[in-house]
Structures are given as structure tokens and as C-alpha cells.
Amino acid sequence: MTSTIFNAPSTVPAIKGLDCKNYVGLKPNVNNFRFNCVKTRPVKVCPTRVLIVRASEQQDGRMKKLGLTDAEWEAAVVAGNVPEAPPVPPKPAAPAGTPVVPSLPLSRRPRRNRKSPAMRASFQETNISPANFVYPLFIHEGAEDTPIGAMPGCYRLGWRHGLVEEVTKARDVGVNSIVLFPKVPDGLKSPTGDEAYNDNGLVPRAIRLLKDKYPDLVIYTDVALDPYSSDGHDGIVREDGVIMNDETVHQLCKQAVSQARAGADVVSPSDMMDGRVGAIRAALDAEGFQHVSIMSYTAKYASSFYGPFREALDSNPRFGDKKTYQMNPANYREALIEASADESEGADILLVKPGLPYLDIIRLLRDKSALPIAAYQVSGEYSMIKAGGVLKMIDEERVMMESLMCLRRAGADIILTYFALQAARCLCGEKR
Q1: Which residues belong to the active site?
Q2: CB-CB contact of 356 with 408 (8 Å)
Q3: Which of 8, 23, 298, 378 could connect to 354 by a Cys-Cys bridge, CB 3.0–4.6 Å?
Q4: How far apart are CA 46 and CA 122, in angstroms?
Q5: How does pLDDT run across 184-227, given as a tens digit for each residue?
Q6: pLDDT tens, 306-327?
């Protein structure tokens, strides 16, 4: 049997009483080599001793541990010779003046499961990750990224460069889903919003560009006429101010098909017209887009939290409000009616908008439907947290993460949030 001998200079100044049989400073490797110590004479050229190790190719017995065997240790403990261990730490003293009271007769103390970071992490019921975020991005025809005054940190991105750069940043921290919102030139707006289904319009061009660079990127789109309407409403406006339902749905179907043709993964009707989910599903299927999903804005409330968003898209209504088609913020049961209709018409995802002020609606839909639930943390929610952070009234990062966790806890599977990039960086451990 051949053996290999390794000569290694020892960094230990002196080794006294080295017992080869009990030496445990070396461990066998994965090939079951056995390391044997052999005696050697000091080497004159080196002031330190040399440890020569022979590695045999066969394992002919377990290596003995230094000191007593396991049986000898057990016998010593049985005989009362218990080895020393660190002492029991003293009980921390209460501050002076603390009343002395008998312990409460509690069989259950929930604080026991919260007493350390490790235990709190073990029992955490809700978790959040970058995969839960959908990043809303504003785009425009210009080359420069234009800041949005009411939404600090958000921009109208140039679709050729700024958009791609922002998507790249998001993907780097695990956010691989976006939703696009266009700022359309006024010259292309019309009462019927025909630009919404222009196959060479801003949104289809941006989709094709992103899919060419990142084929696995999940792209959501907004299906509504307000960015394209000269009236600023989500539908066609009759001369007496009435929003026309069925005629609007006809336009929305063409818009959804155009977006699917460009490569959209999920089309998202946010208009709140009656029957639009079923009509869009039929239109998509008729054009061969059975694989394209529909995320319905199921419970979209006529909220005051949308102001900064409308500034970003320059899409404020020219007159009136949107209360005849968006939901009354006072209503709870009405969300069930909308959810039932959307689910029966073929929606794949149900969305609640806004998010944090409507946690009860998110939980209602979560309990009543097996479909994925989305929540939209809207521009007003984002801007309030940003403003509070700038004024040092709150810790922006902590409030941001808590608000997102609350949406998850209420039952949201995905969250549309302008904090997506910032929150993902926080989750990945990057500094602000």
C-alpha cells in the first residue's frame, strides 16, 4: 500500500508531549483518508518544528478523541464529577420603586412568543418579498425623465431609455412585474379616445421594446380611455355629461387587443364600466390571445387619494367627477357584487384601489374569492408617506414597509406600489 507524506512547517513554536494517538487537530476528508502523526527530528534550517502527516488510503478504525472516552465521561457524571459550565445568569433587577406583587395566574402569556428577534421571526404569519410587487411606471414621448412634483422620486420616463433603465434597476432587486401608464400628447386626445388602440402608440411601442430586451418581464397594462380622452374621463362622454357604458366597452376591447398584440401579459381594465371584463375576454380569445390574463379593477373607489396620479398623466376630468362609474367609498357590500360579476365574466385577478384605506375590502374579497387579490397603493398614499418622511414626522422606510406588510396581511397577493424599487432594495439589505 502506497502512502503520501506531506511536510508542513508548523506555526506552533513548540509542541510538548505530542501524543499521536490522541491528536485531534486534523479531520479526515471526504475520501476517508486517515491522518497519522509520525515522530521527526528538528530541521536545522527552520527554527520551528515540522509536523509530518501521512494520509493512508484506507480507514481502519475511528479516530480517538482527546481525553476520556464517551463511556468514561458518562461514568464520571454518574459518579457526581459533573464538568463545569457557565453559571446561571443572575435575574435582572427591577428599577427602584417597582411594586412587589404576586405573579398573575395566567396559563397563557402571548408575550412569550415575542421575547426575542429569533422567536418573532419564527412565528411571523405574513411575509413579503419583491416578487409581490408590481411597479407602476409613467412614460412619455420625450427623451428626458421629467420629475413629477406631487410624487417625489417618481418621473415621467422617456420610453426609449429611462424606462429601460428603471426596469433594469427593478429587476436587479427582484421586481419583475411592471404596469405602464402613458402621458399622451394633447394633440392625440379625442372624445372617443381612438389613440388607445393605435398599434404604434406609446404603450405598444414601449411593450415591444421591453419584451425585446427582457422577454421574461411581466407587463401589466391599463385599459381605460382617460389618458387618451380629451374629456379626461374613463369613457366616452355624451353631450349631456353621461358616461356611455356599452360604447366605451367597445373601445376598451380594441385597446386590450392592441396591447396583447404588442406583448402584454396582463391587461387591466380600470374604467369600471359594466360588463367590460366579459367583453374583453371574448375579444382577446377571438384574436387568439387566450393566454393573456385580465386583472380587473374590481373595487375601484371614487377616492380623493388619486390626485398626484392625475397630475402625472395630465388626465384630470375636464368637468364633473367619476362618481357615476367608480364606487362610493362608503360602500362595503357593493364590492361583493362587482367581484361576483368580474369572476363570472372571466377575470383572473381581482384588484382593490386604493389600498391602505380599504383593507377591509381586501380582506372581504380574500375571504370570498379563490382568485388572486391585488391591492393598489395609490399615489396619494405614496405622497403622504414621502411628505411625512421629508418633514421628519415619521421614519419613511419603516412606515413604507409597515404599510406594505399591512396590505399583505389583509390578503393581497400582489401590490401595485410606487415604492416597489425602494422597498425591494430595503428587503435586499441595501442602504437608502
Answers
A1: 300, 353
A2: no
A3: 378
A4: 54
A5: 999 999 999 999 999 999 999 999 999 999 999 999 999 999 99
A6: 888 877 777 677 777 899 999 9
